[in-house]
Amino acid sequence: MPVPTQRLSVVVAAGALVQFVVAVFARDLSPWSLTTWLVVSLGFVIGDLLTAPNPDEVGFERLLPPVTTIGQEAVVVWTITNPLPRPLRMGISDDLAPSLEPEVRRTTLTIPPQATASVEVPFRPTRRGSFTPTEVVVRSEGRLGLVARQRSRRVPGQTRVHPWFRSRREAELRINRARLLHSGVRSTRLRGSGTEFDQLREYTIDDESRRVDWAATARVGRPIVRTYRAERNQTVINLLDSGRVMAGRVDGVPRLEHAMDAVMTLTALSTGVGDRCGLVIFDKSVHTVLAASNRRSQLGAVTSAMFAVEPALVESDYRSAFASTLGRFHRRTMLVIHTDIIGEVVSDTLLPALPLVSKTHLVVVAASSDPDVARWARQTVRNGDDARRRAAAIAALDERHRASVRLKSLGAMVVDAPVGVSPGMLADVYLRAKARGRL
Asked: Which of 105, 136, 202, 321, by CA, is between 20 and 30 Å from 418?
């Protein structure tokens, strides 16, 4: 399809203006001179169109990174090959999704004769999922740059945007602390002891008397204590609720995004200290079950399983999720339910199903609270709107507290903390449970 360029508009307008000025000064307003100029311009356009190469004959490739992360800068590379023995001016327009937020979607460049040129375009995704741009518009200009030939070409590509692991640093710090426990080094931040015998060593003033090994003490003639480390190869299962309660937005994103960060934190931490970690994703039914593993690649597998999950506007069936989990994991397991603590939901769905798992497994309910609600509950009342907002916030916090108390009464541990803080607190709960032998 022929497309006029900006240069053609400038040339035609300038020529017409010259013709008009000459006609005015020569006092000859005959239209023939202007018509002649337009005919000559049309001749140049046709000639230039004939010199423009077919866009299908121009080599074009799009290279997208196979995987990237929300908020992380990545690069898409456009590579164009000029098959002509002369310089070629090309225009590119790509159909990249707006949520990828590329710096540009179109560009124009000049390629040397029989050469290849590349353009790198940074982008920073703002939404998870799989993106498959399929078309690109290629425009090749003629020698004079007055007109171009344009064609839409099919160039399939794919990139997957994974959730953002915001708490990676928190997980790494806790892995290092947990390894102190495994190596038998005493840590004031990790109280308690493991259940797996590690070694015998001499008594120090900080050791508990109940750890003294009297038989070894009698043999060597000085106090000897037993040291323990946390057991490895224990199991942690993340149950990720993707129902309607996870569609509510906190800090500008759905609660599901914050829950995914907590899932990745716990996966990195548990596999980093030698435990197995798995994943169950559910709403009204179970959609994904990822077997528990302590492989180094387990975090990547968990992330891949979550990247396309979106909250569904349905009630979650906890009973079905628990039954499916019990059918796959028989030994004592730490079950971490990533959901939101809403009084009505807890009373109607979660509490009736909780006894299925709380008797044989260590159950943790993890949620992220909205810091704005806590701030509204503390704000100074200046008018009627402030009073109503503060009253609603206090009522919401009281409802969450009562729901937490009811969950604890059935044997569950509850982690309900502001977004950004919740993953770290959940990691500490896991480490304390592990150190005290509760797993």
From this structure: 321
Burial tier of 236 (Cβ tally within 10 Å: 0-12, 13-18, 19+): buried
Of the ranges 212-216, 248-252, 261-265, 353-357, the best mean pLDDT one: 261-265
Residue 12 near residue 41 (C-beta atoms within 8 A): yes
Give the number of other Cβ atoms within 10 Å of residue 241's Cβ.
26
What does DSSP say about strands 147-154 and 135-141: parallel, antiparallel, or unpaired? antiparallel
CA distance 279 to 276: 11
Question: Is residue 187's pLDDT more than 50?
Answer: no
Q: Give the pairing type, strands 147-154 and 159-162.
A: unpaired
**Per-residue confidence band for 220, with pLDDT thresholds at 50, 70 and 90:** confident
E strands, 203-351, are: 224-229, 235-241, 249-250, 253-254, 276-282, 286-293, 334-338
Superfamily of domain 1-162 in the CATH hierarchy: Immunoglobulins (2.60.40.10)
Quote the tokens at residue 56: 């299908």
pTM of the predicted structure, to 2 decimals: 0.74
Nearest to 103 by CA among 69, 134, 75: 75
Q: How confident is the model at residue 75 (pLDDT cuts 50, 70, 90)?
A: very high
Computed on alpha carbons and rounded to an integer, the radius of gyration of the chain in Å comes to 33
CATH class of 235-435: alpha beta
Rounded to whole angstroms, how far apart are CA atoms 151 and 1? 7
Can you spell out the DSSP letters for 341-393? --HHHIIIIIHHHTHHHHTTSEEEEEEEE-HHHHHHHHSPP-SHHHHHHHHHH
Domain spans of the chain, in order of start: 1-162, 182-229, 235-435
pLDDT of amino acid 185? 42
Work out the number of other CB atoms within 10 angstroms of the CB of residue 233: 10
Cα-based distances in Å from 51 to 10, 11, 88, 131, 148: 20, 18, 11, 37, 9
How many DSSP H helices and E strands does the chain contain?
A: 13, 21
Whether the predicted pLDDT of 272 surpasses 80: yes
The DSSP H or E segment spanning 4 is: strand 2-4
Choose among 324, 351, 362, 330: nearest CA to 409. 351
CA angle 263, 264, 267 (to 5 degrees): 85
Structure tokens at 38: 């337009």
